[in-house]
Write a structure and sequence with these properties.
9-stranded mixed beta sheet, Cytochrome c family protein
Amino acid sequence: MAATDTGNAPPPAPALSWNIPTNITVTTPPSPPTLDSLQHDFDVFSWQTFVALNWPANADGSPNTNMTIGQDTNEPVVWESYRESRTIFLPGGDKPADWGQNSPLPPQCDKIDAKHLPPGTLRLTQVGKTPNVLDESGEPFKTGPLIDQNGKYARFSILTNQAMFNYIVNNQLYSKKGQQDFNADADFPPTKEDSQEQAIMIKTSWVEMGGKYDPSKFFTTWALVYDNPAEEPGVKPSCTLKQVGLVGFHIGHKTISDPQWIWSTFEHVDNVPTVNQPISKAEYNFFNPACKDCQVNEPPPRPWNPGNEYTQPTQVERVIAITDDANQLNAEYHQALNAAVPGSVWQNYELVSTQWPTNAKSKTDPTGVPAPSFLANTTLETYIQGHVKQTSSSCIACHNNATQTNGKFSDFTYLLQRAQ
């Protein structure tokens, strides 16, 4: 992909900012821009968003402008104040607690006393210091669970920012009845230059620390890990407090220029090798180089039960390689992160790619002709990677099919289908 022509001089280090970008900045030659040069600009937008979301936060979730990203790993970051889907779509279609207020925990989690943890370590929280709950052990669309190298289930969460949360609550889209009364297509607020309103949703994936996982190499937090009996038959409810490490980070960001949303996906650098490329590391988060007869990118056999003490690890490979341009951009941001905070844990995360609509106003294609055509996070779409239309992972194409419980368009999110 195209990159800025600076002769033989190395490109300038990217600026790190707590400001979430409102739109891409077209800076890459040539003029007019090409598909490749725009891809680079969207990838810069993704990194800017990732940095801003992972900026140290104040108690109300706003960015702490007196600090920089990675400066204090025991403090919360901006996105950790966002609301989990579990706390928005409640049993019976009940109205969720107001933004910033404590949300109910599963009964098994109520028994855990988090007060005795070291100060500042319980960071996956609402403003009211209620610990978030990782209660999803299967990947989206029921393609199967992901098993880490310790034989444990990876865990997942989906969160929304306040603008998205307010839209759901104000229009009563948190319940089937509310959606029926709303009786219209959803239209979440896009980012505008003159407004702080911007719908952002985040998917994260986590592994429990310990065993083959060194906490110093991950962005970690303490979370309540809940085995949810509603997920799979035979699962017994259980809740334990665990230190977990971030392995996948997926951002959907609606802007005024991109109503199909901009989709950015990041992973831990040690997650997996790439198909047909050298296996360059002795250990990976989701790949065992010593296993020569392991099936690749295949979900574990049923029954699926996260309560099992051990499950055969999933052998995962990346199907679509990260581009040379994205790798170069990753290196530039890693250099900037290390310059800001030597040894910053955020150097262990890399952009896989960004999917965006190349023709957002297309009258014949509601997906806006996405580029690249396919995008997958190996921890979130492990089993649907590839290049097959209508089958392989494509954020925009897939989410274009999302509807509310009443069949109305849900504006590129499946969250509204969770309403009861």
